[in-house]
């Protein structure tokens, strides 16, 4: 936690991954992020996996350091309160449909009426640009990436696609939305007024494919990229197996990395002989190393298979190589190298689930600033009274009536 955005408040009305991620990143930089949910919890409130107490570990981690307001978003009064909160705050993040009670026009109108200003900022995550629904795994299917992955010996005409299991497009979209919000805020501060920012998840996926050069590549070559297994496309890198069977990944994208790897594996003479045979210079760039990768892989695996991983790691570290051994997720979550010495992790907060586990601060590390400890996620509705009083100026009596009517719910913390 860094207090770089401690003068910023954001209303977030969202669910699942991309939209909560945008709010999370802002909260980790000190912004007050007020997440508004339906009083029984949003669509992601009970997302798998659940603890024995019924708490979603996904929801708990995507909503750290936020405040929670629980309203009856199926009622007219609850929806009016939600719009009013966004309008008085002035900026919001959401993945609700534009054609809903939470449209930009509704918020802008309410802000004009309540604050006398025409400067509402909304960042809205869509599926496709034309309004069609989408989620990470469906836009990934459209991108072409799942048909580039898998063993290289697979038949390209009959082999199945291979999905990535991490919703990468969701997380990239969340990060892009946080950036879009900061851009809109700077624009407003310069006198440019409010902004309605729409970010289709599919645009992030297809646009990233284009930015990475993949679209240009396949159009230029007139066909699809072949599957390479765990090899790195266009450069030297792959997984290898040590004497005892430990798998590890190496990458050499620069001359320094390449020369270090050759030295660590003691392959200078063999590489020189192969260069003479093929009439190439492997230290000259990626192209010869990638073109003749299989011959090189065989050489490196012959050494890797004859030595224990500890010795290989010591050699590679001494030569400044880029490498890492494979871990299971459970091993990673218990690895002191990844956790204990990393300032990103801090003391476990009092999680609503009651389960203690590593919690993250901001991914950024600011050397001259002290990072605050990770904050817990809120209980659903934990801040309903506080936010309605502070943001909308409602009295305790007015809030009490809303609670009695079922329009507002308080914390779902068990006694």
Structural description of this entry:
Helices cover 40% and strands 13% of the residues. It is α/β, with parallel strands linked by helices and 415 residues long. It folds into 2 domains: 7-209 and 348-409, Crotonobetainyl-coa:carnitine coa-transferase, domain 1 (Rossmann fold), CATH 3.40.50; 236-325, formyl-coa transferase, domain 3 (2-Layer Sandwich), CATH 3.30.1540.10. The strands form 3 sheets. The chain has a 7-stranded mixed sheet with strand order 6-5-4-1-2-3-12, sandwiched between helices. A 3-stranded antiparallel sheet has the order 7-8-9. The chain has a two-stranded antiparallel sheet with strand order 10-11. A hairpin with a 5-residue loop joins strand 7 (236-241) and strand 8. The chain starts with 8 loop residues before the first strand and ends in a 6-residue tail after the last strand.
Question: What's a quick, concise take on this entry?
Answer:
The chain is 40% helix and 13% strand. With 415 residues, it is α/β, with parallel strands linked by helices.
CATH class descriptor of the largest domain: Alpha Beta
Low-confidence stretches: none
Number of strands: 12
> Largest sheet, if any?
7 strands, mixed
Q: CATH topology of the largest domain, what is it called? A: Rossmann fold
Main features:
3-stranded antiparallel sheet, 415 residues, 7-stranded mixed sheet, Rossmann fold, 13% strand, formyl-coa transferase, domain 3, 16 helices, single chain, alpha/beta
Give the SSE map.
Elements: E1 9-13, H1 18-28, E2 32-38, H2 57-62, E3 67-71, H3 76-89, E4 91-94, H4 104-115, E5 121-126, H5 136-143, H6 168-192, E6 195-200, H7 201-211, H8 214-221, E7 236-241, E8 247-252, H9 255-264, H10 268-278, H11 286-291, H12 293-304, H13 309-318, E9 322-325, H14 329-333, E10 345-346, E11 359-360, H15 384-392, H16 396-404, E12 408-409
Parallel strand pairs: 1-2, 1-4, 2-3, 4-5, 5-6
Antiparallel strand pairs: 3-12, 7-8, 8-9, 10-11
Helix pairs in contact: 1-6, 3-4, 3-15, 5-7, 6-7
